[in-house]
Amino acid sequence: xxxxxxxxxxxxxxxxxxxxxxxxxxxLLDMRDERRLAAGLVERIGEQTSRLKHSPLHSGGESRERxxxxxxxxxxxxxxxEELAADGLGLDSPELAAIGHRVVHGGKHFxxxxxxxxxxxxxxxxxxxxxxxxxxxxxxxxRTARALRPDLPQVAVFDTAFHTTxxxxxxxxxxxxxxxxxxxxxxxxxxxxxxxxVSRATAKLLGKDPSEVNVIxxxxxNGASASAVRGGRCVDTSMGLTPLEGLVMGTRSxxxxxxxxxHLMRVxxxxxxxxxxxxxxxxGLIGLCGDNDMREIRRxxxxxxxxxxxxxxxxxxxxxxxxxxxxxxxxxxxxxxFTAGVGENAAPVREAAVAGLEELGLAIDGELNxxxxxxxxxxxxxxxRVAVAVVPTDEELEIATQTYALVAKKS
Length: 411
Ligand code: AMP
Hints:
Number of helices: 15
Active site: 159
Keywords: ATP-binding, Cytoplasm, Kinase, Magnesium, Metal-binding, Nucleotide-binding, Transferase
Oligomer: single chain
CATH architecture of the largest domain: 2-Layer Sandwich
Pathway: Metabolic intermediate biosynthesis; acetyl-CoA biosynthesis; acetyl-CoA from acetate: step 1/2
InterPro entries: Ac/propionate_kinase, Aliphatic_acid_kin_short-chain, Aliphatic_acid_kinase_CS, ATPase_NBD
Number of domains: 2
Helix content: 25-40%
Family: Belongs to the acetokinase family.
Bound molecules: adenosine monophosphate
């Protein structure tokens, strides 16, 4: 007797996990239409005051919150699995095709998303010395998810992968080669999933194939980085061995003379850990003016606060230098794309970053710049030679897309 049952729909859901040291962010997407089914965040893992916020997006239902101690990542993922199950979206569903993990550091080795096996886990572990804050947390997330669904493909999507196309001239520091190689010191770059997504989306906005356009992407969030993308491939980026290099950020200094560190050690009597904390957590905008939120900084500037104004000016000065540098690296620029929290929302930052660069073909239309929207949009006047765009980033969608492409190819 022939079966009248239709064959089951191929699994099309991807769970994206972004595991930090004390947090897990997640989204469940259906890749048939890129619809978000659920999203949430577990914060303060390991503390008494842990919090899980879960939004069942597929049903448009109210967000739910759990508070109280969540001991570790395993408990956090179990709680997430329970919330998803309560919405009929459990991790045991046959519709779940894969779990995509954000992994911050993939070194030189991982140039593309990779299905995780024991060898891949060992390699991510080997990279801990160059990503001591991030890779251990990412690994914990992967191990916990694997324990929950050992049969399911788990994919690592690396923040560094998009930047592995950088030529050696851009990726190497001018230090002794043997020392650099022994300690794997080179410029890796980060925010790669965002730079990949935004550079492609910018080409689409221009009605072109990514291979046809040169784009400078300015990812300006609390962490911030710039990239120069030629024909869809990254040729330079502002973060380096770690996310500390480059632009002025919310709490990171970005570029400075490395001798500042020796000075702080010798004259300031500070330890390596103290300087690490100073430059990563107490510098940038927060170090300069006590605030790292651009909204607050703009509010203070409007009230005539000179310290906030100086912090803003230093931030813009550095940003402009990178626009100029990447213009020179690319030779021809078709578009500059602003993205992430500051880039998508702070019109004064966009205006100031591009001001005075008319000779480079850059200009902004004040009215277009003031528009608030969730869609990618152009903010340059029609006459401008270089398009200036605001392109909301979507790292979760990019991770899900890369994960799904890999598992769909394999099945
Ligand atoms: P992200 O790391 O991409 O989430 O960006 C976070 C940062 O974006 C915050 O620290 C703020 O500085 C900035 N931000 C978010 N919303 C706005 C807004 N409406 N106007 C200006 N800056 C904003």
